[in-house]
Amino acid sequence: MTDAANGNWTPDLPIVSLKDVHKSFGDLEVLKGISFDVMKGEVICIIGPSGSGKSTLIRCVNALNPIDSGSITVEGQEVNDPKLDKLELRKKVGMVFQQYNLFPHKTALENVMMAPVLVLKEGKASVEARARALIRKVRLDGKEDSFPGELSGGQQQRVAIARSLAMQPDVMLFDEVTAALDPETVKEVLVTIKDLAQEGMTCMLVTHEMGFAREIADHIYFTDRGVIVEHGPPATFFDEAKDPRTQEFLGQIL
Amino acid sequence: MWDSIQTFFRDLAERDASWNFIYIYDDNELERVLEGMWVTLELSVVCVVFSVVIGLVGAWLQGARSRIVRSVVQGYIQFFRNTPPLVQLMFFYFALGQFTPTYSPDGYLQQPIISNVGWAIISLSFFAGAFNVEIFRAGIEAVPQSTQEAAESLGMSRFQAYVYVVLPLAFRVSLPALNNNLVNLVKTTTQALAIAVPELLYQLVSIYNDYSTAQNACMVLMFIVYITLVGFLVFGMNRWERRMVIPGYGGGGGR
Questions:
Q1: The whole model's pTM is what?
Q2: A242 has a chain B CB within 8 A of its CB
């Protein structure tokens, strides 16, 4: 681990590694020692009841929430380091939110182009070509000049995915990205994520879509009250859950 | 054409002593009025620009990490918002004016570095700026925290997120309130009369002090000029508001 922290990270080491992560909001301890590794190209799903710390956990990975103790590394870089160059981290880690959070005053194309131009200082022409390709990829051709307010929830969420991909990240975080969508549009977003996963993008998803998790995840983590209760590949996890808390949760959901 | 208008008003003044439009047929008085209008316009434009800049900077500083910076901004707002602008003008010019250094352009008379026009600009800009800080703050607070987080997670710095995401959205929310405050500011420039700034009201008051028969005519002009001036401002602001409307976003923008 110390080797990796010094920038000697190689793709055979975990791309994201959490070690004994603790996080409190005031008196409320939300994460009570979470540890796991994600390998490059892996798709992991974090599931669990509301308030179990899933979203907090994923937000800690790109330093939107600072952690209190423990360690999170992304490609060997310590996220919890006060000297961390957040820009470097955020170039590697893309994030998609439950509420899409598009910039409402920019068109779909502008939303996708903004960060590469402003943050990476890339030329507009090359960014635009990439942005248009990404919009095609999320199947929104023809919507380039629409404003977010003119798009459906599912379309907005796909723009948000394209916007995040435009930064060419190595890891994508999805924080309950279908939770605000109506059932018909959930599928179009899931298909987009599935495409990504199949292309080998490392994905960490917080989700309530159990069927989807089962289909695309390489590994499922079940969290409850700030700890990982049980984890495993989907087949074993869903069919042979041992912990009573997992069984109860799955019993309610499935 | 102009001659016949002047003749008409000269005759009117002779026929009816309460309607002496002296500033139309007397070139000296006309010049005073034009000068006054120019100073009023200048004062309005400069103060509007400064007050908006003060508002933007103040609102940015209100989000600063440092407690001291935040309390300084808060103190500034409380002071300028809770005292009458007329008192501020007099305080700045008569009290602070005494402590500013002087210079001598002709080597004979000493002049303060900041003239009464300068003090009027400073005082009125800070007065309206205090309201603008609050107006912009309200706009900034209306931008969801999550939108800023999205900008942040795309690698933008706090400043980039402020300039490219938060401000453009906050501005749209703030425009109606800003509109009102700027209208107020333009009207408040008349109070610079108290420190002898030669704006329109000052000139007109001196005219009707010289010619008491011109009083009604001066009042009429005052209203016409302000209705026109504020009318242009409101027209411009409304057009701007409409142009800033984002398709499918909120109700904003008086359409």
A1: 0.80
A2: no
